[in-house]
Write a structure and sequence with these properties.
The protein is built from 1 helix and 15 strands. By secondary structure, the protein is mainly beta. The protein has one domain: Porin, CATH 2.40.160.40. The N terminus is likely disordered.
């Protein structure tokens, strides 16, 4: 949110695709509204390629950083896939200043026994200098994504992700109120917030919870049961300048993935 983009597939409806979601252009005649709602309920969602609440980790100035994320999920039955889905995100980041990083990502997937290249993104993250002992931590991330889903639908979108975090002794609270704007012919905006609460059990290990409420249309919020909402139990570990995140998630609405397992390795070899 996770930068986000997953595999989704509409079923016989007029659908406008936006980052990780699809929604309907409803006709003005109320009598025609019911069939569109039925199509909306049957639309399948999928885990994004990036399932991550951004904090303030960036590459050091004039140094490289690498991130590998994999997630494995059981798609909703309405999606019609014959197998579970394995997704991978590969990221390279480079510190262009002491406060900012440029990044490039590639999205890969495997399902139904076939491997795919699903697109990628370029990003810029700005993190001001913080007092590490201070309460507030903040920054912003801008990115351009290109996604090609299982149905062959192509979506290009811009994502703005404010990064806000509060440190209270061993507790850390973070929120990413992301906004996605499609750059396709039919432009639209979606609100995809995510949040995290973590508790430090040692200096190198945290446990916590992450929550993702993806693809909430700004102009017309649908009922919560028609949106993908997923909660994760996670653990974070640090080793030198590298960090690792492991989580197990469960969709809490009908249009969410049943179960998702994710692993993120942020590697710094300098």
């Amino acid at each position: 949110m996770v930068a986000r983009g997953g595999i989704d597939q509409g079923r016989g409806c007029l659908i406008l695709y936006s980052a990780e979601m699809s929604f309907l252009r409803c006709p003005p005649n109320p009598l025609k509204f019911a069939p569109y709602l039925l199509c909306l309920w049957s639309t399948a969602f999928a885990a994004p390629f990036e399932i991550k609440v951004h904090d303030e980790l960036i590459a050091d100035y004039q140094h490289s950083a690498y991130e590998i994320e994999t997630n494995f999920f059981q798609a909703p039955a309405s999606q019609g896939l014959k197998s579970d889905v394995f997704q991978t995100r590969l990221e390279y980041g480079y510190g262009i200043t002491e406060k900012s990083e440029l990044g490039a990502n590639v999205y890969l997937s495997n399902y139904n026994g076939v491997s795919y290249v699903n697109g990628g993104k370029i990003s810029h993250m700005y993190i001001p200098t913080h007092d590490e002992e201070g309460l507030w931590h903040y920054g912003v991330k801008n990115e351009i994504n290109y996604i090609k889903d299982v149905g062959g639908n192509e979506t290009t979108y811009y994502e703005l992700t404010p990064i806000l975090a509060l440190q209270l002794q061993d507790w850390r609270f973070a929120i990413n109120p992301s906004v996605d704007v499609t750059l396709n012919k039919n432009s639209s905006a979606t609100f995809s917030p995510s949040a995290k609460v973590a508790y430090g059990i040692t200096e190198a290990v945290d446990i916590g919870m992450e929550y993702y409420a993806d693809n909430l249309p700004n102009k017309s919020l649908y009922n919560i049961t028609q949106q993908p909402h997923t909660a994760y139990l996670v653990t974070d570990a640090k080793y030198g300048k590298s960090s690792f995140n492991f989580g197990v998630g469960k969709g809490i609405t009908a249009n969410s993935d049943n179960w998702v397992v994710k692993l993120i390795a942020s590697l710094n070899f300098d």
